[in-house]
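Retro notes (design track)

What went well: tokenization of the new backbones is finally stable.
What didn't: we kept losing track of which sequence belonged to which structure.
Fix going forward: every design gets posted as structure first, then sequence, in one message. First example under the new rule, 181 residues:
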């Protein structure tokens, strides 16, 4: 259920507002200004929350490497096996004769996710590595609520791909039921 909306006015220099409108339209955000500003506020709150090492986060680690490098594939595998609760899934793509792309979906306390990422990216021979922390789980739930999604009701099974409330690892879209473990 969407929470009640509160109206308030803000004072902002015209030039800044014009720049904001332009920025929002470039990002495809300009459904209306209110929505664009809400997105920014949520983003700021999530960023702040992500600084807490205990915050539960979801994200992905992307690696590019040459599989011909001695022992590299085995090391990447071994590190992931050391974090069974954090690694949700991974995808391996053979880019060309040499290069592999590996995308690892992760989920867990920010500290652990960061640690796993550092271990992987630190392996000698990794050409490119990046951790993308998408959001905290509580933020996903809040965004979900703001969009008016309902849980624990008959609606649950109506949507395509709607996950079961008990399935925290959700096969469906993001932001559903994640806090309901
Ligand atoms: Ni490969």
């Amino acid at each position: 259920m969407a929470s009640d909306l509160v109206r308030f006015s803000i004072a902002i220099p015209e030039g800044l507002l014009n720049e904001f409108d332009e920025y929002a339209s470039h990002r495809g955000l300009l459904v209306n200004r209110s929505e664009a500003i809400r997105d920014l506020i949520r983003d700021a709150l999530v960023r702040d929350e992500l600084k807490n090492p205990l915050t539960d986060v979801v994200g992905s680690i992307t690696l590019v490497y040459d599989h011909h490098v001695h022992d590299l594939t085995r090391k990447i595998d071994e590190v992931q096996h050391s974090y069974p609760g954090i690694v949700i899934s991974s995808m391996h793509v053979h880019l060309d004769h040499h290069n592999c792309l590996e995308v690892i979906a992760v989920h867990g306390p920010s500290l652990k996710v960061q640690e796993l990422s550092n271990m992987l990216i630190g392996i000698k021979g990794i050409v490119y590595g990046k951790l993308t922390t998408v959001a905290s789980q509580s933020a996903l739930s809040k965004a979900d609520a703001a969009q008016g999604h309902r849980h624990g009701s008959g609606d649950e099974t109506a949507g395509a791909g709607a996950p079961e409330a008990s399935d925290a690892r959700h096969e469906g879209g993001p932001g559903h039921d994640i806090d309901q473990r």
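Added context from the reviewer: Confidence is low (pLDDT under 50) at residues 150-181.
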